[in-house]
Design brief:
2 copies of one chain form a homodimer.
Chain A (H helix, E strand, L loop, with lengths): L32 E5 L6 E6 L2 E4 H6 L8 H7 L5 H4 L3 H15 L10 H4 E3 L4 E3 L7 E4 L3 H11 L15 E3 L5 E3 L4 E2 L2 E5 L5 E5 L3 E2 L2 E7 L18 E8 L2 E2 H7 L7 H4 L2 E3 L4 E2 L7 E2 L18 H6 L1 E2 L2 E7 L1 H5 L5 E7 L7 H8 L11 E3 L14 H5 L5 E2 L5 E2 L7 E8 L7 E2 L3 E6 L4
Parallel strand pairs in A: 6-22, 8-16, 9-27
Antiparallel strand pairs in A: 1-2, 1-5, 2-3, 3-4, 6-7, 10-11, 12-15, 13-14, 13-22, 14-16, 14-17, 18-19, 20-21, 20-25, 23-24, 25-26, 25-27
């Protein structure tokens, strides 16, 4: 499964100078895809490199990419990366190799074209990277489940099914937006402590720090995807903020699960970090706590147990309106790692399709809140504050839940000795006041 | 809201003879849209009339429809009725008037074209009528909720939120199929009475008799649709079978609601009966039981209370393999009426968007199981048999849950004295054995 090649070589450097900055998320070893537009024209497919974006249409026109990629690249125009994501893994790996060759210092094919090929990311508008059909959100952190359950089900915080079922619910695709889009505080109803049922702006707006996976190859209705084939269906990964209104959620979720508490909007980062780029950061699936049952056979594959995990550092920060005005940077409130997940992404795909349900190119699979075992790795406010113990911010402000004007920023980074670190870019949204 | 016009005139008859048969679902007063193909070419938009389908592209080419409809009709080709559904209500009403004029006995414009205009429904392949973005399933029958709750929550069968919240969950759009598509029995996991967790073919496969509504006009993210504008967003209605695996459902649904129990597949009828066609059958919203709270203000509009209900007779029938072999007709197991719903479709739309979540053209809104107060109106097997009291079929067979080879047929009919009855066509699916 894990295939390292010249694209992961830490010695490789790019003629795009900013890509060689150790702090960049987008060195030549990353090469994530995105959809961008630099004016009024429809968005087109690009590849992030340092502070720039390589224009794939431009590279094709300059004769730098094989004509066999032409229809996939053209097919992205004005929609999303879906046409690229449909390419088979071999073609995608070959494209990555070619892009890495074109962008490395030693390249001499791009010479006369370099100015036209690279668009400054600052001048580009980044769009939703994929046209999303279905959005499924999992619940893959046992730590998140346990902390949430301690309040609502103190005697039995982890549901009996949790260690057998990679629990998920269908979420809402229409309201997924790319990083930077504002989040309108939702109105909704809930029962107050006084007993009356109230409708108004949520008083418990939260973030959930998640990893998102985009489906590349579709599957066929009626035919489950076996777990050892599941990785073939993943195009790549993004950061995902599953904004949640806790008061609405508590009231509406019996018996069919969360609905309006989650559908208000969901934010994703604009870059799809490919499965190939993440190959060096694959690790063993997290060890299950002693006494837990082994995964059922349809959720178990040796290769997945061996390298189905991902070592990804994930952070969430808050910047209030006052902090922004004062020029204070976002304050980090969560540092966690995707390696703590109870279920791997392959297990999620195998479970999702185990009943024959088909997945489609562009589907978004959320991991659920990526909380780890330590206090600093609690990946939503519900876990951090429990609605009662506010976070103290450096400027003297405090937060139990999000306040209008707050922005929440997620970042993600993959690091491993002997490799150049790669990142996910920014996943950010600012809260607007509710409609009256 | 309710606007009756010449298209509803019971005296109107069609030159398509089969449309004048009192038993047809598709008299000239109905004119539902569909997507059909009559060969290898992509599906195109049509209108059901008796045993035929009026080819909208053909009518346009023959100069029988205004050129202003050309792009909407062409836009449906190979996809779904979405481009037609995006037309504003005035344009749709004018199109309906024109189609009714063209198809009535007195018409003389169609004369030379009639043979080419009408395709025999028997020779056409009907497709999924809309390209579906989101599929949301409500839970709008208090009777269904109460009967289900009696088993799982005997002390408190109706959740505390039910009379305030039009409860819904996001369901799965990718696996929605048109009537006639086979249903593969899903595999899944659940905990047996013995305590062990089992993975295998569901042993409790059920149907749910629902009404589906297709969204016409999209709304904007962040902006709720007020209840008095909600009807403007409904293009039309279909029948919907929300196939459900009860064993999987019971095990997986805590705490995030049903997932694989519902995503195996969903069947819809191929015809979209428009809101205009159903105008004569609008009635007052169902009276709430004494003591129930009034709908919260965002769920209350006088017009909706006055005529937001729909008087639609809905039936579910089962035909086993043995019945089919013997030439026995499907056996009716449910007769219910949409007028029993606790929540109106406008209330569903207002609630769905109350947090700012946007709805989009082609979204499918399911009503939830349409059970009524009487035993004969229990609209799924879970209610009828409770998993324990099998239904006796006329040939001596019995059913607690569905068996491989069974087919389930839904029909729907709107009747009112002084009007010609209209129907929904067939919504049917047959169960295939599970994959080993």
């Amino acid at each position: 499964m894990i295939q390292l090649d010249a694209t992961h070589d830490p010695a490789r450097r790019s003629w795009v100078g900013s890509a060689n900055d150790p702090a960049t998320d987008f060195p030549i070893q990353n090469l994530p895809y995105c959809m961008f537009s630099s004016g009024a024209e429809p968005a087109r497919a690009g590849v992030a490199i340092g502070d720039g974006i390589l224009d794939l249409e431009g590279a094709l026109e300059a004769g730098l990419l094989a004509p066999s990629y032409a229809s996939a690249i053209a097919g992205c125009r004005g929609t999303g990366l879906n046409a690229l994501a449909r390419l088979d893994r071999g073609a995608l790996r070959a494209l990555r190799l070619r892009l890495s060759e074109l962008l490395r210092v030693e390249d001499d094919a791009t010479g006369p074209h370099r100015d036209r090929l690279i668009v400054s990311a600052r001048q580009a508008v980044l769009q939703l990277p994929m046209k999303i059909g279905g959005f499924t959100d999992f619940f893959a952190s046992l730590h998140h489940t346990e902390r949430g359950g301690r309040r609502t089900r103190p005697d039995n915080p982890v549901p009996a099914n949790y260690r057998y079922v990679p629990i998920a619910y269908n979420s809402r695709a229409s309201s997924v937006r790319v990083s930077g889009a504002a989040i309108r505080r939702p109105n909704g109803q809930w029962r107050r402590a006084t007993g009356d049922v109230h409708f108004g702006p949520t008083e418990a707006l939260d973030f959930e720090l998640e990893l998102g996976a985009f489906v590349g190859h579709s599957s066929v209705l009626g035919d489950p995807v076996p777990i050892d084939r599941a990785p073939d269906h993943i195009f790549g990964y993004c950061l995902l903020n599953d904004w949640s209104a806790r008061d609405i959620q508590r009231w509406e979720s019996v018996p069919l699960g969360p609905f309006l508490a989650k559908t208000l909007s969901t934010t994703v980062s604009p870059f799809v970090v490919t499965a190939d780029a993440l190959a060096p950061y694959r690790i063993a699936a997290a060890a299950r706590p002693a006494g837990d049952p082994a995964p059922l056979p349809y959720l178990h594959a040796e290769a997945d147990q061996r390298d189905g995990g991902l070592d990804l550092l994930l952070k969430a920060s808050i910047q209030t309106e006052a902090m922004r005005t004062a020029g204070a940077p976002p304050h980090c409130v969560t540092t966690t790692n995707f390696k703590h997940m109870y279920w791997t992404v392959a297990q999620m795909i195998a479970h999702h399709t185990s009943n024959g349900c088909n997945i489609e190119t562009g589907d978004l699979i959320g991991s659920g809140t990526t909380s780890g075992p330590t206090d600093e790795s609690r990946a939503c406010l519900a876990e951090i504050t429990d609605g009662e113990r506010p976070i103290a911010l450096p400027n003297g402000e405090s937060r139990t839940w999000l306040v209008d004007g707050d922005s929440v920023l997620f970042t993600g980074r993959a690091e491993r000795p002997g490799f150049v670190p790669i990142g996910f870019g920014r996943c950010e949204g600012r809260i607007l006041p509710a409609h009256a």
